Amino acid sequence: MDSLHHDLTVVEQIEVSPPHATIGCKSLPLTFSDIAWFAFPDPVHTLFFYDHPITQTIFIETIVPTLKQSLSITLQHFFPFVGKLAIFPTSTRIPEIRYVEGDSVAVTFAESDLDFNYITGNHPRECHKFYHLIPLLGSTTKVSDYITIPVFAVQVTLFPNHGIFIGMTNHHNLCDASTRFCFLKAWTSIAQSGGSDEPFLANGTLPIYDRLLKYPKIDESFVKNANVETFDEEYKLPRLSGPTNEVRATFILTRTKINGLKKLVSTQLPTLAYVSSFTVACAYIWSCATKVEKDELAAFIFVIDGRSRLDPPIPAAYLGNCVMPCFTLARTTILKSKEGFVTAAKLIGQNLHKMLSDKDGIVKDIGSFEE
């Protein structure tokens, strides 16, 4: 075993491919909703922890083979995850995700001697303690007249006799959270079935690859604004690094607390159309976070899944990015005031209602921009 970090020992580093000849060469052109993420190049990192007290022997002999086999089977149904992002040095050609026989996903199995309870606790924890649990995407490669970038990587880390962390990194041009969740459900189903994809095929939903967001003029405009002609073999994605002076903490809003917040907002703003758990949770976070800020204009931004809210709607199984931003602005002095929380709830609720209901919101026909 190799030492990758002073708190981490690598058990195995492998490349996992779909079963031979189950996919064939395929490509998936990006749409404007995918291309937009070139402006935000940081990869997406997700980390799941499981309280599963097993030994290293059980991990190596049971968990590792199961995850390898089930991931391989899953990839044959989600070929973009094992493909590579191809970027061409011209704004006249849309970037795409390509899969060719032999492509693979980098998977690392490791062991950590960090305190599992410290990492998984709700107290403040140093951010950089998590970084070595997150896999890195591979390097950019020059191929003929274009470059390719791996879009997905996995790391599984054992904390002996305590639990397991599964870390994943994906290029944001690959997909949004909805697609990633569909992939995880498929992988989980196949792993639980001992490597068989029959239950998934019977009960799951296969991804839809058809480019249902068909707005070529918008695609071309986004590619032009992305300045893809500047991308070359030196292009590198940002990577997490530390140590830093930042900490990560978990704050729990109980159902009783959320219901109390909703009642407060509904009482003071009886005409507010959108008072959901999400609205009050975001308002509470925003009003609390601004208490340490100077007097300035503050923004609260999140994204909304647009699949069911487009006109016409597209299926939930659509693979790719299909999210729209929703943002709210307010001065920190207002948010820090006695009525700061209620004001934040009003602003967020109004914007959500507009995005989800008004004809000028997310449901507006995007095709009007093509005219």
Derived from helix and strand composition plus strand pairing, the structural class reads: alpha+beta
Q: Shape from CA axes?
A: globular
Overall tally of domains: 2
The end-to-end span amounts to: 60 Å
Written as H for each helix and E for each strand, in order along the chain, the element string is EEEHEHHEEEHEHEEEEHHHEHHEEHH
Rg measurement, Å: 23 Å
**CATH homology superfamily name of the largest domain:** Chloramphenicol acetyltransferase-like domain
CATH class of the largest domain: Alpha Beta
What is the second-level CATH architecture of the largest domain?
Answer: 2-Layer Sandwich
How many H/I helices? 12
Uncertain stretches of 5 or more adjacent residues = none
Pfam family, one: Transferase
Keywords: Acyltransferase, Transferase
GO molecular function: acyltransferase activity, transferring groups other than amino-acyl groups
Task: Please characterize this protein's 3D structure.
The termini are far apart. The mean pLDDT is 91. The chain folds into 2 domains: 2-230, 2-Layer Sandwich (Chloramphenicol Acetyltransferase), CATH 3.30.559.10; 251-370, Chloramphenicol Acetyltransferase (2-Layer Sandwich), CATH 3.30.559.10. The strands form 4 sheets. Strands 1-2-7-11-12-4 form a 6-stranded mixed beta sheet, with helices on one face. It has helices at residues 32-35, 56-75, 79-82, 116-120, 128-131, 177-192, 198-203, 216-226, 255-268, 277-289, 332-335, 340-357, and strands spanning 2-5, 8-16, 26-29, 44-51, 84-87, 96-99, 105-112, 125-126, 141-143, 146-150, 152-159, 163-170, 247-248, 297-305, 323-331. The longest helix has 20 residues, at 56-75. It is α+β, with helices and mostly antiparallel strands and 371 residues long. It is built from 12 helices and 15 strands. The radius of gyration is 23 Å and the shape is globular.
